[in-house]
Write a structure and sequence with these properties.
AB_hydrolase_fold, 11 helices, Peptidase_S9_cat, mainly beta, 823 residues, 8-stranded mixed beta sheet, 56 strands, 41% strand, Rossmann fold
């Protein structure tokens, strides 16, 4: 009989070998540590000084550059850097505060600092480790002008005019202009407070306690009060609040009534609140109670409505009915719009049918605009009259302005000014010949609505220069312009093929900073100052890491005559005399990514990184696909076949015997389908992907909170009708019904927590492939979702994807975890 200790050692050895065989192999993957990411963080009021941040693994380097001299000063692993004024900055490193003069680089260090905040007029507020609060004047020297000890918490108003602080269990206010301190009177003790919200005049402050109790601080009357919630018996788990109209605060109490999971969960076909199913299955019954609190008389009024968009005045608000047109068949939503009077408790219907929440409300709440039939309409809430903006095709974005009688609209060629009184429409830009533009005003202000389904209301200040970014979609070029107060357009940079990102502007002058990049050009920091454009600095990445990069735009035509594009990236160390394997990546339209500077890394949420693949010696091809009446899978097959034929015709160094294909989500579905129809690919990778459309269309999508047929009929899959009306198309575009035809080894992966495309799709396809004895391995990340969020999982998936491609396309057969599942 075998010795017991020897038996344990044998079992241990078997387990160790089994574990090592299942691990991804990373031996041949080498990434330079010199790759980094440059970000444009801040610009001074004069535009002279620019703050950037460069991240390299765990090292964060923040720099201040002079836009004129191009000189810079840098700091490693500090906190964020803030401008005190135009020549001084402040930053914190551990518990030390550094104040630096940018003219002479003289610095002052203050020890034992817990936190700090920049106040107007060269002042800094500091809270020390010993909870002493200091206010410093940095105009010439560093002078202490105010001090208080034993400060537990403080709240500074957005305009830096008022501060409320908690000393012990007593509230005090400090006027930051004249440094006058006042004690606030209240009748209860306070604990830790959070979520400060100030009114516009900064004389009222709302905060809440750790028990979700709401505290109202009145700086005019020097008092504070606790606002009692509506339902004392339920478990209060969260409270939110917001100043609305002039004197009111809307408070939302969220209660949780925890019950046992139901023995039976009933689904009715006339239920229009299926969104709640996700919680009721867990026994979580959430109850929302609204209160309207008047800050003058401290009276509360219960508000039953949970679909409030915005208050018009103290007594009226806009609301909507989400159930009126709901049938869960559309990816977008149609609602009815009402005006509710609180005193009369009446609803007045304003719009019967509002599509996709396309509504924006003016800041003075006298008007709202909505989009219908590709035109914007202005509704006057005072006289209930509607004005339609006619004589302008392809209307896109809408902006309110600081002039109550003027609004801005973009279409697919220009920016326009519309006078709501005279109804006159004026063109502000001069893009005459181009009709495929996307125009964005960058320096607008956003004001959110009470309901997040509705986009924030955007306002443009006509008394300041307007920064305009224009994207030519057909040619993938970008431009930046300044429109001055006299409506004169001035170019900053025109029709560049470089990608423009992170545009910042100064508050005082027409000074702009931004980053440019391209697939073979690392980040450059640009400055537009005094009507001159210059490059201030370039990323620290050595040119040798990317200057070999080469790209070709492949134009191809499908059998249906659709003209499309694809991006081909060349492998590193490319030689005209050699052949290289090629990876095709799919996900709808991709050609707009051709000027994106990509950094090779192992942490990728879908396992795909084109820069990493080219460094590993692959061509990478990203062709566009679209959806025709034939369905998503059939159309994509036509696209990919035409694209592959064209790219092989153009580039003879592509090894047609070693082609791979990969995709995630909708792209993964396309991969699933294509390999059931053709065997031109030697290897495939598909993640978080649908394998079937018929049964799936009748399911419920817990991620989107709607029936899945909205996705299949109306969104990405665009079948435009239910299965009963298009049975052939549904069947023809469902990969799993053709899985017996698959000849391509495929690596499948999914996150078990995916609520968008449930992991059972991957399991079902795996089951079919196993039944038909196909070469396949499936990876299930048990605690991750649709795209992998966990860094360890991201790295594991990326390495396994590289292993899988190398095994089949480079004949690298010494990968144990693949041999274990394939042989």
């Amino acid at each position: 009989m075998m010795d017991t200790n020897l038996l344990k050692k044998v079992i241990y050895l078997i387990l160790l070998l089994s574990f090592s065989n299942s691990k991804a192999q990373v031996d041949s993957i080498s990434i330079s540590p010199l790759w980094s990411k440059l970000q444009n963080i801040s610009i001074s009021n004069s535009g002279k000084w620019l703050i950037t941040q460069e991240t390299n693994n765990e090292l964060i380097k923040r720099c201040i550059s002079n836009a004129d001299t191009k000189k810079e000063i840098c700091f490693e692993n500090t906190g964020f850097i803030y401008f005190i004024d135009d020549i001084k900055i402040a930053y914190q490193k551990k518990n030390q505060l550094y104040i630096v003069n940018l003219q002479n680089y003289k610095q002052t260090v203050i020890d034992q600092v817990s936190s700090f905040e920049i106040i107007a007029n060269n002042r800094i507020f500091i809270l020390t480790d010993q909870k002493t609060a200091l206010l410093l004047n940095t105009s010439s020297n560093i002078d202490k002008i105010w001090e208080q000890k034993s400060i537990n918490q403080f709240f500074i108003s957005p305009a830096k005019q008022q501060m409320v602080y908690l000393q012990g269990d007593q509230f005090f206010s400090l006027d930051l202009k004249n440094l006058k301190t006042s004690s606030l009177i209240g009748s209860f003790k306070l604990d830790t407070l959070s979520n400060p919200i100030w009114n516009d005049k900064q004389n009222h402050l709302m905060v809440k306690t750790t028990r979700n109790e709401v505290i109202h601080i009145d700086l005019k009357k020097k008092t504070y009060f606790k606002i009692e919630p509506t339902k004392q018996s339920l478990n209060l788990i969260n409270t939110t609040y917001e100043f609305v109209a002039n004197n009111n605060i809307l408070i939302k109490y969220l209660y949780l009534h925890k019950t046992q999971s139901p023995i039976v969960d009933i689904w009715y076909t006339n239920d229009y609140n299926l969104e709640a199913k996700k919680n009721t299955l867990k026994g979580d019954n959430f109850v929302v109670q609204n209160q309207l609190y008047n800050i003058d008389n401290r009276q509360t009024t219960p508000i039953i409505d949970n679909e409030i968009i915005r208050f018009i005045n103290n007594d009226e608000y806009l609301t909507y009915d989400s159930k009126a047109h709901k049938d869960y068949s559309k990816n977008s939503s149609t609602v009815s719009l009402y005006k509710h009077n609180i005193l009369k408790n009446t609803n007045s219907k304003l719009l019967d049918s509002l599509s996709n929440y396309a509504l924006t409300i003016s800041n003075d709440t006298n008007k709202f605009a909505y989009k219908s039939n590709n035109k914007w309409h202005l509704y006057n809430l005072n006289n209930n009259k509607t004005t339609t903006i006619d004589n302008l095709e392809n209307q896109q974005d809408f902006y309110w302005t600081t002039n109550p009688n003027k609004v801005l609209i973009t279409n697919n060629s220009n920016l326009w000014l519309f006078d709501t009184t005279s109804h006159q429409l004026s063109k502000l830009t001069n893009n005459e010949a181009i009709n495929d533009l996307k125009i964005n005003i960058l320096n607008h202000q956003s004001f959110p609505n009470l309901n997040e389904s509705f986009k924030p209301n955007t306002v443009v200040n006509l008394n300041k220069p307007i920064i305009i970014k224009t994207l030519d979609i057909s040619n993938n070029t970008s431009s930046l312009h300044v429109l001055d107060k006299n409506n004169t357009i001035k170019p900053i940079i025109e029709a560049t093929s470089d990608r423009i990102t992170q545009v910042l502007w100064s508050n005082q002058k027409e000074q702009v900073s931004f980053l440019t990049e391209n697939y073979n050009m690392s980040y450059k920091l640009n400055s537009y100052k005094d009507k001159q454009l210059s490059i201030v600095k370039t990323s620290s990445i050595p040119d040798s890491l990317f200057n070999w990069r080469r790209q070709m735009i492949i134009e191809f035509k499908t059998v249906q005559g659709k003209q499309l594009k694809g991006i081909l990236y060349y492998p590193k160390n490319f030689s005209e005399l050699k052949k290289y394997p090629m990876i095709t990546h799919l996900y709808e339209t991709q050609n707009h990514l051709q000027n994106l500077f990509r950094i090779p890394k192992l942490e990728n949420d879908t396992g795909y990184n084109s820069a990493l693949l080219t460094e590993q010696g692959y061509f990478v091809f990203e062709p566009d696909t679209y959806v025709s009446e034939k369905g998503p899978g059939v159309t994509a097959l036509e696209c990919v076949e035409a694209a592959i034929q064209e790219v092989q015709k153009k580039v003879k160094q592509i090894d047609s015997e070693n082609l791979g294909i990969m995709g995630q989500s909708f792209g993964g579905y396309l991969v699933n389908y294509i390999i059931t129809q053709v065997d031109i690919f030697k290897v495939a990778i598909s993640g978080s992907s649908r394998s079937e459309l018929i049964v799936d269309s009748y399911g419920f999508n817990y991620y989107l909170n709607r029936m899945s047929y909205a996705k299949i009929e109306d969104a990405q899959y665009k079948l435009k009708a239910p299965y009963a009306e298009k049975p052939k198309e549904y069947f023809a575009n469902s990969p799993i019904y053709y899985s017996q035809n698959i000849q391509t080894p495929i690596l499948l992966w999914a996150g078990n927590l995916d609520e968008n495309v449930p992991w059972r799709h991957t399991m079902n396809l795996y089951g079919a492939l196993r039944r038909y004895n196909k070469q396949a391995i499936a990876l299930f990340y048990t605690k991750d979702g649709h795209s992998l969020a966990d860094k360890t999982n991201q790295k594991d998936l990326t390495i396994r994807s590289l292993n899988w491609l190398s095994y089949f396309l480079k004949d690298t057969k010494d990968i144990n975890w693949i041999k274990q599942g394939i042989n």
